[in-house]
# Entry
Amino acid sequence: MFLRNAWYVAAWDREIGRQPLARTILGEPLVFYRKADGTAVALEDRCCHRHLPLSMGRIEGDDLRCGYHGLRFDALGHCVEIPGQAQIPPDARIASYPLVERFNWVWIWMGDPARADPALIPNWWWADHPEWACAKPDMIHVACNYQLINDNVLDVTHLVYVHASSIGNPAINDFPATTERQGNLVRLTRWILDRPAPPMYQAAGKFAGNVDRWQIVEHVPPCFSINFAGCADAGTGAPTGNIVDGIELMALSAPTPETERSTHYFFAFPRKFGLNDPALDKVFNVDFVNVFREDVAVLEAQQRAMERNPFAPSISIKVDAAPMAARRVLQGMIDAERPVRLTEPG
Amino acid sequence: MFLRNAWYVAAWDREIGRQPLARTILGEPLVFYRKADGTAVALEDRCCHRHLPLSMGRIEGDDLRCGYHGLRFDALGHCVEIPGQAQIPPDARIASYPLVERFNWVWIWMGDPARADPALIPNWWWADHPEWACAKPDMIHVACNYQLINDNVLDVTHLVYVHASSIGNPAINDFPATTERQGNLVRLTRWILDRPAPPMYQAAGKFAGNVDRWQIVEHVPPCFSINFAGCADAGTGAPTGNIVDGIELMALSAPTPETERSTHYFFAFPRKFGLNDPALDKVFNVDFVNVFREDVAVLEAQQRAMERNPFAPSISIKVDAAPMAARRVLQGMIDAERPVRLTEPG
Amino acid sequence: MFLRNAWYVAAWDREIGRQPLARTILGEPLVFYRKADGTAVALEDRCCHRHLPLSMGRIEGDDLRCGYHGLRFDALGHCVEIPGQAQIPPDARIASYPLVERFNWVWIWMGDPARADPALIPNWWWADHPEWACAKPDMIHVACNYQLINDNVLDVTHLVYVHASSIGNPAINDFPATTERQGNLVRLTRWILDRPAPPMYQAAGKFAGNVDRWQIVEHVPPCFSINFAGCADAGTGAPTGNIVDGIELMALSAPTPETERSTHYFFAFPRKFGLNDPALDKVFNVDFVNVFREDVAVLEAQQRAMERNPFAPSISIKVDAAPMAARRVLQGMIDAERPVRLTEPG
# Structure
């Protein structure tokens, strides 16, 4: 069960061009391409005639022509030509989906097109701001349900165990996290004061001594998380907002459901330091992606274990507070989309 | 659901010899071999004792011996020896199937053996006639239901889109096709008059100018199609049967169901020109097979799309007339094989 | 359906060390490791928090720590640490399983721990006795139900067909076998008198003429078979127990169910001759394993055939007497573990 009336990241803008791109989102096969003027288009990837994926066809002008019997569809999904006949039946059409391009991502609205308000797209301005550099690595395909990724991002203690060699260190466990909810937003906050920087931060910031480090995650449904992270010399005032010679970075996470069992995991890493440092670019485009791949190994094993025995009991612990709050918010929104009868007729 | 009382092509004669050949047909595992005198045999590929495929056993004289406990079966499927015991129980037998060899194909009857009349085998005499050369390439395994192949062969407009570089050209769409039904035979006829020859025909025929081209498909259930094709200099009388300096070729198609989801696609290409031309032999044995492989890519994608969403709606268009007529004929024959009660008892 | 209250071979002792070993037994994912003092431990391979396999975690002292959120479990499966919180809820525990090491095998009890009596482990003393050499090759994973392996071991006629080049020869079929049942033990006995030795025995024993050969299989549920085998010069008294210049060997078989469809096949080969002969060591560690691999090909094909058509009829023959007796014994024990109501309430 997915939230339909929501924006999802469908692709990096660089992935969509004048060759059809096939991608399944929320279980629906879609085909993406650009019109002659560059406008991105998303259509159902299934000819309404004999079901061949239209992504096997070819782009002609602003339209897409099926590679089997040649039916031609415009960017709104209407069939505009059937070879061998003049009449086009009214049901010769396929679904089309609203798209908006922002932050180099192509966002898709999977629900009622009339409600596709671009203002509902998360305002992730750091990804496109001159005071920030932003690494925008390729999406990772993950064989797990997207909510396991939401859980993962909203729990920062796993860094100690999954990412010990890069961004985790045991100091994290010494400081409690707080979870807040503001409307649909769930915020997790942890400050790790006067402790050594984890390996990757130390490499980036070359800190002389201990640091004050923050881990703040803001999550909004269905799948958008900002992980504010960074550290500065201990005692210089970071917790009060006064960041001196620190490093400020973020992880923007947008895991888009492919199916109930698989996810297109999009993410980007804005940073406010070393903007023109190619070595740092590599840290974020390569090393941080490898950190995410450590999560992928865990997430896919978790999915397999849950599929193997869906009814195995599980306990919850303190670090689940934020993930569980986010799940409750999302489930409420999904439930609200479904027709509910409160009484029997009669 | 398959038509049982029908001949199907089981194999090329060259595929069956003194080593057991395992092949599934209509969902049933079969084993083929030749007796000492060369007669081909088809048996159930499952020992009646503990189910090991007999194709893992060995041929002894005219019989087949199981590779596990040594039960020996004759060419009619009767167990004739059980090591370690003298008595052979009456139910120690496996199914055997009538075979007929014709046109280098081994035909199998999958229904009531008493009804296995060789006269019911399609008379594809062109495949064995001195005035015709006939390419007989290896069978292609296709991961789709065989009726999608019937549909494909009975629609000649797809040549424009699937085979543009070989036997398709847009001129096809300028001329309507007619569909006729004669008993169980469905015939599709299209004449393309005074147009350029498609690339592969032009290479074969070296035509000086435009041609008159024919596409005539005759289909009989459950899966036998003759595609009469060819062209001659425009205006020289081909539509009246007077073929001068033209090229005449055919595709004989016999897609045998392996399962509901996969097919052994047998085909052959008789031609009435360049009988002793090795370059033309290559055109038909290699290039035309590659044309068929273009279909395979489409057919398998279509099958996957239909399995993924079996209830997606579909529209029908004019070119579906012949395929749909053939499906109706076949369904009627399948229905006729099944017991039907018209009234409730009592 | 498996017999729960029974010992099974879980692993060779050499497989378990200070790195977690994941292995599924009776359908349950388990993790094995050794404590600091070398004691072997078996736990459920699934964290009680979010289901990650604990085999992806790390051993700390005598405990196992989950690789996701760091929950730490002791060797009895009790959670002893949850990072970030002091309180450990009482249901924070996973299953643990009794283990006993014997004959270099690690035996696991999958049922009620209170009934895990080591005296119930088969007394396979030949595997650890100075008058016997014992080859202990690696386990083979077989994609079939373990009872097909029980059947295989309890039928010695298949040697003629499956192992003709090594331990089978047609003489086997000339002599009837007898089947006895003593409590839960099923014994199959066959003496092959005054016949040539099969190839592998001849190579080992260099017999001058014919031999008297025995094949005696003793099987106890759920999956333990001893195959006593060997031969001596014909007429020298072997059938009366007087073995002169003969070769005596055994196959100990312990196929442990992984799932209903797959098995960890453990086995060992004690022999009472050529104890310090490295060439013979190779015969048993390599050549005999290859003999077993011939069985594996048959068993996996049989499993596939049975899955493909579970309702295909089958006949039984004389050689099935022992396998069927063993199946009846086992089924009786499995049934006895299940609650049965003999009357309806009321």
